[in-house]
Amino acid sequence: MTNLSPFDIQARPNRLLAQAISCVLFVVCIGLYMHTSVARHRENAEDRVVPSGHQLVAGIRSAVLEPAEEDDYIPADNASTWERLRHSMIWKDTASSGGRFFISLALLIPFVVLAVHIGLFPWFGAGFLRFFLFFDKIVALSLLPILFIAFGIDQWSKIALIVIGVAPTMILDVTQMVKAVPQEQIVKAFTLDANNFDVAYRVVFRQVLPQVINSLRLNLKPMMLFLFAGEMIAASDGLAYRIAIMRRHMGMDVILPYVLWVALLLFLIDFSLRMINRRLHPWFQA
Amino acid sequence: MVSGLRASEMAAGLPLFGEQARAVAEARVQAAKSISIEDVSVSYAVGRGARRSVLENITLEIEEGEFVVLLGETGCGKSTLLRMLLGQERPTAGQISVAGSRVERVDARSGYVPQRYSLFPDRTVLDNLMMGPLTSKFHILGRLRPSFWETRRAVKAEAFRQLAHMGLQASDAGKYPYQLSGGMQQRVAIAQALMMKNRVLLMDEAFSALDPSTRSSLQRLLRSVWSEARPTVVFVTHNTAEALFLGTRLIVLARESKDDACGSRVTLDMKLAEGGMTLRSHGQQFLDLVEHVEAVSNSDRRTISDHCGGKSSLVEPVRVSAVDGETP
Fold first, then answer.
1. Do B235 and B218 share a domain, yes or no?
2. Cβ-contact A269, A220 below 8 angstroms
3. Measured CA distances, A131 to A37, A125, A135, A167, A168 (Å)
4. Mean of the pLDDT values across residues B237-247?
5. Residue B23 covered by a domain
6. Residue span of the structural domain in which B167 resides
7. Distance from B105 to chain A by nearest Cα, in Å?
8. Number of folded domains in chain B?
């Protein structure tokens, strides 16, 4: 067999090599970070911009096992790790941001249902489609002051921001998916004595559901982006609030673990949705 | 019309007078004429007041149990006519009745087998087969009724029977459509339509995407299914040999002029005694007929009247006796 160059389109690395290659950039990033950190600490042992491994471990420890500064709770000396974790800064912030995130996610469901109707029922399409096409062009962040005035600075303004920011795009996306369902399928369903409800939910919705989940996966990051924007401007807790507070104290030893924690959470949600899709819709993988 | 009558009076056999009696008589005639197409024309706006005519003054009566093949070259409007029979499109002029009542929307009075996307990809073969009967008997909340499970068992047994009838294995029941070949998918699609026990079956180029051998076996299967239950079948194809093998009646649609204002008309309406005509069984007669039909469907203007307003000279009943033979 001829050896193909790695730059050849037809060259395929074997499984082991592919996994090794996929680790290279991670290793390079970690290596560069460590190199910079060591160099900076050589000049200034107290450097906080690029924390050392020890500083990072200390930062993670304080985030995971110690309460937030603003909390009055002081753990007893003999408190268990679980007890400390339950009252920790990262737990509190994750719960606050997670709550906002999942409430927004739940509020998107009616919009997905509306999108199915817009794509399927011409009267709905005539009524809603142009409105959402226009609404989609409004920059959601520009509405933030209005949302703060309307909903106050507590969690509902952030939830509204996420929903307003993501819903129009999802509606347009799902509408297109519904329109892409072959007309033959809809006609066939009616010839099988299906009524409008059956066609909408037992034929079309079932078929687009895996794509809706994929669309949701793609929207996870914009959702988190809107949440962070809201929390950074006005909040009393949350992951982005903590990052904003730590920025004032140059607390990179906490900021960096928080950034990685948020990325890990998003990765896990995305992975779970992917697994759910694969398990529930084996036909879609074909 | 039948729909306007009190069903209880008809069922009880009470004497009917005047308008009602006329409606019943009309309904009986309509029922014998499984499909009635009356002076149907279709045209579309193509910008700035111009219209493109697709079909022009189509009038057809299709009797119960006929196997009608609509033949014509691409773009002649045969699929448009089928979509109107389904209720998916409405004629610009004229009216269409199926099974005695006017077609206003797509409903369950006709079975439908399209060329592609004939099965629901998210359902297994068994679920595809059971969908129609279960949906027609139990809409969403009806599934909570205790009788649902009993009916489901009966429908499932019928689905397995249909599966075997179509030459498929019981082990195929759990497969998704993407796991089946094109021919197997169309077998399931036919079974799916038959599960509804419709008296009318509409098939749009159902075998066009299949390889010749699969196509041939499906043609034989369809002929045998039709021979057993004798539903009214309207089958759209552009393959003359397939049309002569399957149909008991051949209708050729052709455009008499390339002018946009001139739509397709019925240029040949021919009855074959029992269909099943093949080259091997009918030799030269088959070849002559193929040549004749193709000349008409290809709009051979030597034999078709020159201007679209005129009557076509080839609308004639040609009777050919035929016996079951091998597939072309």
1. yes
2. yes
3. 52, 10, 6, 12, 9
4. 89
5. no
6. 120-197
7. 9
8. 2
CA A186-A189-A191 angle, to 5 degrees, is: 115
Phi, psi at B191, each rounded to 5°: -60, -40
Residue B14, in any domain of the structure: no
Residue B29, pLDDT score = 53
Nearest CB to A203 within list B88, B114, B120: B120
Contact state of B135 with A192 under an 8 Å Cβ cutoff: yes
User: Are residues B37 and B98 located together in one domain of the fold?
Assistant: yes
pTM: 0.82
For residues B96 and B206, membership in a common domain is answered with yes
The pLDDT of B155-161, averaged and rounded, is 95
Indicate the range of A95-104, B246-255, B282-291 predicted with least confidence.
Answer: B282-291
pLDDT score recorded for residue B321: 44
Q: How far apart are CA A188 and CA A49, in angstroms?
A: 64
Out of B155, B181, B197, a domain closes at: B197
Task: Tell me which residue of B263, B253, B269 sits closest to B309, measured CA to CA.
Answer: B263
Give the pLDDT confidence of A158-215 residue by residue, as tens digits.
999 999 999 999 999 999 999 999 999 999 999 999 999 999 999 999 999 999 999 9
Give the number of other Cβ atoms within 10 Å of residue A57's Cβ: 13
* Predicted local confidence at residue B30, as pLDDT: 53
Question: Mean of the per-residue pLDDT values for chain A?
Answer: 92
Whole-number Å distance between alpha carbons of A60 and B79: 68
Boundary of a domain, candidates B197, B224, B250: B197
- The pair of structure tokens assigned to A145 is 């002051």
Q: Cα separation of B35 and B96, whole Å?
A: 7
Contacts of B112 in chain A (CB under 8 A): 187-188, 191
Any domain includes B51: yes
Nearest-by-CA chain A residue for B119? A185
CA of residue A197 relative to chain centroid, distance: 32
Do B222 and B315 lie in one domain? The reply is yes
CATH of domain A86-285: 1.10.3720.10
